[in-house]
Amino acid sequence: MSILTRPTLRWAIPVTAVAVVIGGGAAIGTFAAEAEPSLPPRTAAQLLVDLQTSRLEGLSGTVVQRADLGLPAVAGLAGAAAGDLGALVDGTNTLRVWYSGPDRQRIALIGTLGQSDLIRDGRDVWAWSSRTNEAVHHTLSTENGTKAAPSELPATPQQAADLALAAIDPSTEVSVGRSATVAGRDAYELVLDPRDDRSLVAQIRIAIDATEHIPLRFEVFATGADRAAFEVAFTQVDFRRPDAAQFRFNPPPGVKIVEGSEKGSEKGSEKGAGPERKPGATPDGGPKTVGTGWTTVVVAQGDPLGEVGKKAGEKAAGGTTEEKAAADQIAGLLSGLTRVSGDWGSGRLLTSRLFSVLITDDGRLLAGAVTPERLYEVARG
Q1: 13-259 topology per CATH
Q2: Where are the domains of the chain?
Q3: Where are the transmembrane segments (predicted)?
Q4: pLDDT tens column, 268-303
């Protein structure tokens, strides 16, 4: 579709699988339903144009994110392995978000054990955790200064919608659903239905603000399910530009500041040309994608899940009771993966409602929002 030219956050559905599969989720319901408002009719094409042409000057609000992926509930796994912001993959989470243009953004994860902040103010990016009272500072380079700060999962409906819209191609049926009220605001609903039955995503629903044309709620439904496996929605939203003070990091007393360095996410992007290689055989050993749209598969070398378990175990040695328990749960998850084999080789398989992950014995990890059979097809090369 030619109208899909607005830059996204450069996230892809399969990329999130690598982060999501290491967390679990308790059973959840959907966000509380409100009366269906009466809105003037709009077609799917008109709603797509609304999304791509909207102009967001500023925003602040409260976001609730919930996940029910059908994985073992591994409490504390994401936090032990990837820091507090990694806990977004587990159960229900509440965030506060502020946006004031592409170079001023802030996300605060509010947890029972403290708060984690990810703040961008121009070229300065700060990641802070109240639990450890440690702040990591990154300075973005000039050429990459307009890019959003990195994160594993979409923290707002807008980011999740960008991710989904990037997958629209002829394999997707786009339609209009029922109107809704989200965070006290009237909204249209855009519905995306993948036509490829190799995808585990049955449907995506995006509630779009009827006035501002900004996504207010994002839901992903798995095949055969009648409730969302993943959803992120505003419960309160204000479209006024936040004060600049919201994006200044003021180190609290006693904070430990660590200077980081921007990782070259674009490094080696032009090295993909050359002789055909087996999936995952990139020059720098980094992950690559195979396929397009809903059946895209991420392929990486090594055993990331095993590394997660190793690091959690190292952290737990001499750590708190909570950290040791998390390490035990990770070890249990890894040892419980199903052994599988075929003409592609052999390995271990992790499945959920929305994602499948295959760890081959020859040192590859394949992940995507696809059936195991699709992973075997890619592994076969």
Answers
A1: outer membrane lipoprotein receptor (LolB), chain A (2.50.20)
A2: 13-259, 288-380
A3: 12-33
A4: 434 343 444 444 444 455 789 999 888 999 999 876
